[in-house]
Every structure is written in structure tokens, then in C-alpha cells.
Amino acid sequence: MNEVYITRTSSYFPNSAIANDEMESFLGIVGNRASRSRKIVLRNNGIKQRYYALDKQGKPTHSNAEITSLAIRKLFEKDPSGLKNISLLTCGTSVPDQMMPSHSVMVHGMLPEAEDMEVVSPAGNCCSGMHALKYAYLSLKIADNKTAVCAGSERLSRTLHADNFDIEASKLQALEENAGLAFEKDFLRWMLSDGAGAFYLETQKNREGLSLRIDWIEGVSYAHLLETCMYMGSDKMENGALKSFMDFDQNQLLEKSIFSMKQDVKILNGNIIKLGIKNLQKLIQSHDLNINELSYFLPHMSSYYFEDKIDSGLKDIGIIIPKEKWYTNLSSVGNIGAGSIFTMVDDLIKKELLKTGDKILLMVPESARFSYVFCLLTAC
């Protein structure tokens, strides 16, 4: 089978970076009073700035598909005609601009210079970008396609704007009296960022400069063991089942904030790290992976709150990855969900931190119902 290489990487962030003290200028203030949880959440997540596809009036400046297409265009800045050579396009995101058509075909539609191609839209959350990468990798591996572009992106800022929480404002006292409810409703407003990253995949490495050979990509779901943790477009029942947005009337959709993203933190904290480490332990054995040979470990984290917990969990099972090998850009670009891992890899390359022979382990957890994807790359 073919070897498959990432030969180009790119990132796109809309507008200018937004510091912590500017966030409510863009997202608005719920109930005409500043959020009490904002500073607490920001102190824990360690994010210093992020990007929004919004102006200060809360109006969108970009769609998700547009952000993704702009990241893809950056892959071909030196050779725009190269868009015509794409034979496969795969794009992952948590929340596309619409339920149909699919996200990737909308991205394709924003690349009119490109020609007809195969297009695939993986569904999911943070892992959807990695699922896009795996589909592209396997397609080139078996020579089903010659070239591929895969991308991960998010544009969630508009769903976090205060005008989507008017009903919550009327219940503000209840939120403040119930810390768990307040966290579920409010904390994600201070966690997420907009942006996109993209990779160009080929079966030949670059003649000049580094390429990244994809050694393997492995994904797993633990949905059969645990109920839903993060959800949107549904509501969680007392028995843990989800009730679809299609089963609510119009008034209930608003009253219950069905289209707001929510997270059950009780399930999150007890499982997200434990299951990911369990999966990595299996992969180390099945791929005969020598952790000591890693040059970089790129963990996708929603918050620096999880950094020491991941480190402790790894050490508990005898896996030691020195902190100097860890790399993330979370503090400077925020949590971009499906796009985060793409922008981290792009950072490593753009900052010229890699050398031939370096091995890079990618880890992408997804809390929605506990899925994980790991990937090993080798610089060559």
C-alpha cells in the first residue's frame, strides 16, 4: 500500500485575537449583568485569547464553511491552480452552518476554482476532524484517490451570544443558586473559539522541506459504557436518554434552550481522562510504540485544567512523557474543537520546531459520548 504524507498545513482564524477582558463585548452580557463564572472559568482553562467570527454587534462575519475554505486556500497560496488537483475533500466540524446540505459540500461550493471531486462530511465533535483525516489517509493508502484535503473547523461564537440566552436571563437567580446548572449553561461561553485548520495529503513526500508521514490513526468509542456528556439540539432526560429537538414544540425549543450546547460535567470529570489513557495503553501494545522515542505529544485539551490530570493519569500506568515534549496552542487560539489539532500541527511546522525523524503523537478526545482518536506522525 501507499505511504501517505501530510505535505502542507494551514490555519485560518477570523478577525483579530480577542483578549479575556473583551469577550463580553463580542458575546454580549446575559441579563444586563456581567457573568459571575467568566473569571473562574478563564482562570481554570488558561486561555488568554481566542477568535470569533463576530463583530461587536454580534453579527456574523464568516460562516463555518467560509472559514474552512479560507484555511484550504492558504494551502495553495504559492500555487492557487493546485486547487484543481484535489481529488478528495473531507471536512469535520461539530456544528455545520446547516443540517443539510452537508458541511463539506458547502466548503466545496466555496472553492469554485476546484473541479469535481469526492466529498465526505464526517459527523461528530472534536474527533470529526480526525475522522476526516483518517478517511483521507485510508483513501490514499489504497490508491482510491491521489490527493486529498482534510480540514477541521468550528464557528460556534454566534450560538454563544447573549441574545440566545434571553430566557436564561429571566432565570438568572435560579442559575446562581444552582452551581451545577450555572456551569452547564454558562461555562461553555468562555471555552470556545472559531477557526479552521487544513492538511494536504499526497502519496509522495515533499522534494524540499519536511513532510509528515502518517504511520497510523486509531479511533474508539465508549458510548456503549456511558450516557451522553455533551449535547446540542436535544435535551437530557432523567434516565440519561436524549430527547431530540424534533420532539419539542416551538415554545419548548426556546424555553429549554434546546439549541444551546450543554455539558454534563459530573460524567465528564470522572471519565474523559481515564478512558483516553486506557485506549492509549492498548495502542502502545498493539503498535509496539516506544513512548521514549516521541519528540512531541500534542493533546487536544479544552482547558489547561486537564493538563496535570492527563499527566498524572499517564504516570499512574507507567507512561512518562516529559512536559517539554508536550505542545499545545490553546492559550493563544482557544479551543477550536475539531480544528484544534490541525492548528497545533501547523504551528509546529510554521515555527520550524520539527526535524527529520521526529515522532509526533496526536491525542484527540471527544466528550460528547466519549470517543478518542490517536495518530502517530513521523517527520521526514
Question: Would you kindly provide a written description of the structure presented here, covering whatever features stand out?
Answer:
The chain starts with a strand and ends with a strand. Helix 3 (64-75) crosses helix 4 (103-109). It folds into 2 domains: 5-212, Thiolase/Chalcone synthase (Peroxisomal Thiolase, Chain A, domain 1); 215-379, Peroxisomal Thiolase, Chain A, domain 1 (3-Layer(aba) Sandwich). Strands 5-4-6-7-1-8-15-14-13 form a 9-stranded mixed sheet, sandwiched between helices. The chain has a two-stranded antiparallel ribbon with strand order 2-3. It has a two-stranded antiparallel ribbon with strand order 9-12. The chain has helices at 23-27, 38-45, 64-75, 103-109, 126-141, 166-170, 172-177, 179-186, 250-255, 265-286, 307-316, 330-333, 340-350, and strands at 5-12, 18-19, 49-50, 88-93, 118-120, 147-154, 195-202, 212-221, 230-231, 234-236, 242-244, 262-263, 296-299, 359-366, 371-379. It is globular and about 55 Å long. It has 380 residues and is of the alpha+beta class. It is built from 13 helices and 15 strands.
